């Protein structure tokens, strides 16, 4: 199974900070930038894996994620800031605004793993359901096809699970 | 990927994770449980995960299959998992000196349950390590099929990574066939026992 695009969306209204964050990340990932909530909302689609949010208020992006017409359930949010009162419920990680490039990259890498794990868990469940339906309908060829795909997905999941700690694995599985 | 086998626990010998679908009424559940506990020989460690059933009840059912003095026993027990008043977290008096490590979780919290199962697997030193989860049907009282599927995906992977073996009880008549079929791919083997056992 081909790896899905894992784009990082940097939604930071301040131009200088946005540029700095983008510079730190673009050697490893495709990066989109947004200076306004409208631009960030427009950018949200199934190719986005991580959203890095800066500025005073991240709750608006949470609303955008929840109400996006695109598939956004897997998206992991990283909030850069110092005001804990503004932390959105969906922000998985919070880092200080003056975080180093290395720590930023390390955290985004971890969030990418979580996003990928999330997608694979969803795919595994959907395939399992489809297989169940095919079996109920007596479609043995379809069952065999689903079995092969499931084996491939499960192998990817097992490989990824080896690199994810329990907290992250169960957080992602239980969508916390 | 699950192989569909009825009745026999022999096919589960080499399997890391086994789904054990038996009727809630009758002896099949406990007979299969005892067989699955000892399929890799006398267990060095048993990790029991109890929701509506109690640790004391499971211990009582296992008493003829294991030596509680030789086997290290741990339980992750959900206190408010729908247990009847008649089943308490009773002591282990009469279990001939068994020492039991007990981790209590107050409510059905899959995150806590999962991380505790994983922690107990990591802490186990005496193999073979055997996990008995009783039961998935109890968890379905509290969580959706989707969430349980995702939870089990993590747990079964952790069991395999720890070189442990596990079986997971589910009421064969308590769910539509589609639910058991949807869960089956997560397990190496699915055992389905009918009421004749």
Describe the model.
The complex is a heterodimer of chains A (176) and B (197). With 176 residues, chain A is an alpha/beta fold. Chain A folds into 2 domains: 7-111, Rossmann fold (3-Layer(aba) Sandwich); 113-173. Chain A has helices at 15-25, 37-43, 59-67, 101-136, 140-161, 166-173; strands at 7-11, 31-34, 48-53, 76-80, 91-95. In chain A, strand 1, helix 1 (15-25) and strand 2 (31-34) form a beta-alpha-beta unit. The two termini of chain A are 26 Å apart. Chain B has 197 residues and is of the alpha/beta class. In chain B, 31% of the residues lie in helices and 23% in strands. Chain B has 6 helices and 8 strands; from the N terminus they run ββαβαββαβααβαβ. An 8-stranded parallel sheet of chain B has the order 1-8-2-7-6-3-4-5, with helices on both faces. In chain B, helix 2 links the parallel strand 3 and strand 4. The model of chain B is unreliable at 85-95 (pLDDT under 50). The A-B interface holds A 121, 124-125, 127-129, 131-133, 135-136, 147, 150-151, 154, 157-158, 161-162, 166-167, 169-171, 173-176 and B 1, 110-111, 114-115, 118-119, 146-147, 149-151, 153-154, 157-158, 160-161, 177-178, 181-186.
CATH topology of the largest domain in chain A, anyone?
Rossmann fold
Overall spatial form of chain A: elongated
Succession of helices and strands of chain B: EEHEHEEHEHHEHE
CATH class identity of the largest domain in chain A:
Alpha Beta
Can you tell me the CATH topology of chain B? Rossmann fold
Indicate how many domains the architecture of chain B comprises.
1
Question: Helix proportion of residues of chain A, in percent?
Answer: 40-55%
What would you report as the Rg of chain B, rounded to the nearest angstrom? 15 Å
What string, H for helix and E for strand, traces the elements of chain A in order?
A: EHEHEHEEHHH
Biggest sheet architecture of chain A: 5 strands, parallel
Percent helix of chain B: 25-40%
**What is the general shape of chain B?**
globular
With strands numbered from the N-terminus, the spatial order across the biggest sheet of chain A is 2-1-3-4-5
């Amino acid at each position: 199974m081909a790896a899905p695009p894992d784009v990082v969306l940097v939604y930071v209204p301040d131009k200088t900070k946005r540029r700095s964050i983008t510079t730190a990340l673009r050697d490893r990932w495709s990066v989109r930038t947004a200076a306004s909530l409208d631009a960030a909302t427009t950018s949200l689609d199934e190719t986005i894996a991580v959203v890095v949010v800066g500025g005073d208020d991240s709750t608006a992006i949470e609303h955008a994620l929840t109400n996006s017409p695109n598939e956004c359930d897997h998206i992991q949010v990283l909030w850069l800031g110092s005001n804990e009162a503004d932390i959105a419920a969906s922000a998985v990680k919070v880092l200080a605004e003056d975080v180093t490039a290395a720590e930023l990259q390390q955290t985004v890498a971890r969030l990418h793993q979580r996003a990928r794990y999330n997608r694979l868990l969803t795919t595994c469940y959907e395939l399992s359901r489809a297989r169940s339906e095919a079996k109920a309908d007596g479609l043995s060829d379809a069952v065999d096809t689903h079995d092969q795909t499931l084996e491939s997905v499960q192998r990817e999941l097992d490989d990824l699970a080896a690199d994810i700690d329990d907290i992250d694995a169960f957080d992602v599985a239980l969508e916390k | 990927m699950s192989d569909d086998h009825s009745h026999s626990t022999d096919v589960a010998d080499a399997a890391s994770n086994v789904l054990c679908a038996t009727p809630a009424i009758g002896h099949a559940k406990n007979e299969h449980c005892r067989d699955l506990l000892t399929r890799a020989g006398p267990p060095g460690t048993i990790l029991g995960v109890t929701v509506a059933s109690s640790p004391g009840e499971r211990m009582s059912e296992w008493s003829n299959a294991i030596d509680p003095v030789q086997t290290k026993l741990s339980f992750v027990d959900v206190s408010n998992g729908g247990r009847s008043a008649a089943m308490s977290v009773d002591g282990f008096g009469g279990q001939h000196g068994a020492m039991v490590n007990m981790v209590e979780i107050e409510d059905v919290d899959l995150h806590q349950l999962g991380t505790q199962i994983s922690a107990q697997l990591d802490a186990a030193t005496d193999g073979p390590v055997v996990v008995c989860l009783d039961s998935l049907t109890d968890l379905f009282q509290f969580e959706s099929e989707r969430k349980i599927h995702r939870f089990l995906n993590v747990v079964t992977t952790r069991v395999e990574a720890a070189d442990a073996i596990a079986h997971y009880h589910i009421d064969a008549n308590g769910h539509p066939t589609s639910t058991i079929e949807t869960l089956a791919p997560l397990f190496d083997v699915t055992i389905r026992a009918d009421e004749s056992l």
